[in-house]
Each structure stands twice: as C-alpha cells, then as structure tokens.
Write a structure and sequence with these properties.
With about 250 residues, this protein is α+β, with helices and mostly antiparallel strands. It has 3 helices and 13 strands, in the order ααβαββββββββββββ. About 15% of the residues lie in helices and about 50% in strands. The termini are far apart.
C-alpha cells in the first residue's frame, strides 16, 4: 500500500513539474504566432507604369520576319524605339528582408507612326533583398518567367511590298509572334509611410530575353527551340514608377 501511494505521489509530482515546465496554451499560441511573423512579416500589392528604350543591332533583328527580310526598304526601317507600358505585382515579405511574389507586365513600342509596333507581354516570379532606412527601402533583385512579343509591320503607303518570287501578292501588313523566357535583374527604392500603408516604388531593370531563332527563306524557314544561347532583341533599360499598398 505504501509503495502504491509512493508511486501515485511520484506520478503527481512528475505531472506537476511538467505542467510548470511547459508553457500554457496561450503562451504556445503566442510563441507560434511570433515565429510565424518572423517568417512572413507582411504582404503588398502594387501597380506600376514604365517607360524605356529598347534597341536591336539591325532592323532584321527588330522585326524578326522572313517575309520582309528581302525587301529593299528594310534597310531604312528602325532598329530601336521608346517603349511604354503598365504592370502589377503581389508580394510576400519574408524575414523582414526578402520579397517573394508574382508580377505581370505589358509594354508597347510604336514604330514609324503607321501602325507598326511591338507588343510585349511577360510575367513570372520575383524575388529581391531589401533593407529599411526609416521610411526608405532600397532593394536589389530579379524576376524570372516567360513572355511573348507580337511584331506588326505595316509598309509605308507609297510602298508595295510583294512576296519574294510572287508579283501578285501585296503585303498590307505582316505579323509574327515570338515566345521567350527571361531573367530580369533590377534595382529600386521604395518610400513607405508607416501609417498610411501606401508607398511609392521606383525601379530600373534590364530584361534579358532568350527565345527561338528562325532561319532560312520564306516557305522553308527553320525554327530553333528556345535556348539560353539565343539572346533576343530588342532589349534595353526600363524605368518603373508606381504605387504599393500593404505592410
């Protein structure tokens, strides 16, 4: 009997010590919540507008269109231009120094003032490192993803663009579409007032698109697969300015 009472007493003592050593439910929830906050410290969404300068080594590289590559007037076509567009993003703030999120952008480059243009749409995953200097957040990062360039060529009104070897077909316009994947390094800065939660973002990027190349002649063209060694054009720097809402 005494042994039985002694065992019961030991069990009660052990349960009491464990209860004193382990945190309460509220403390455990608070600790778990604190750990979660350390990993995810906030989120934000943003809208941006951008403008930039994109260039190619030649008009052939800009238009990437075999149907006009043999035309005599292609030498007089532009090989660069101003590009403008808009974009959006959503981000998680991790460990108080990282942004991880998604972005999408659309850019338009008008050419020759006659309807010719390049329309570029892209989107992917973004990540950057940032630090805080009061209400200012300098950052450096990159995004990776995919996109597509739609290239439209409209000949001048006084030019009849005939297909090579065909004197009966006149091209009023020519259209090609070029898919690609990209790496887009950037640097930027954010101004984030703590109370309002609405901030200003300014960044500069230089996209590196990698796509497929088309070689040969019209009707016998050979399309290569998208690969790292084929850096596409046009490419160039862009300046983004926008609003960011979030913590």
């Amino acid at each position: 009997m005494r042994l039985f009472r002694f065992l019961i007493l030991c069990c009660l003592c052990s349960f009491g010590i464990e209860a004193l050593a382990s945190p309460s439910n509220e403390e455990a929830q608070t600790t778990s919540h604190t750990d979660r906050k350390r990993i995810i410290s906030g989120f934000s969404i943003g809208l941006t507008a951008h403008a930039g300068y994109a260039f190619s080594s030649s008009p052939e590289e800009l238009f990437r269109n075999l149907s006009i590559s043999n035309l005599p007037q292609i030498a007089n076509l532009p090989k660069d231009g101003i590009t403008m567009g808009v974009g959006a993003m959503i981000r998680l703030h991790l460990l108080d120094h990282l942004h991880l999120g998604l972005e999408g952008n659309f850019s338009h480059m008008p050419l020759m003032r006659n309807g010719s243009s390049l329309r570029n749409g892209w989107g992917g995953v973004l990540v950057n490192y940032y630090t805080e200097w009061g209400k200012v957040r300098p950052m450096i990062g990159a995004s990776i993803g995919g996109g597509d360039v739609k290239r439209i060529y409209v000949p001048a009104e006084d030019v009849n663009a005939f297909a090579p070897g065909d004197s009966t077909t006149i091209y009023n316009a020519s259209h090609t579409s070029t898919p690609y994947f990209y790496i887009d390094p950037y640097i930027g800065i954010e101004f984030v007032p703590k109370r309002l939660g609405l901030g200003l973002i300014i960044k500069v990027d230089y996209m590196l698109p990698f796509g497929s190349k088309t070689t040969g002649t019209l009707g016998q063209e050979i399309k290569e697969s998208i690969k790292w060694s084929n850096l596409m054009s046009p490419t160039g720097p862009r300046l983004y300015i926008g609003l960011v809402l979030g913590k």
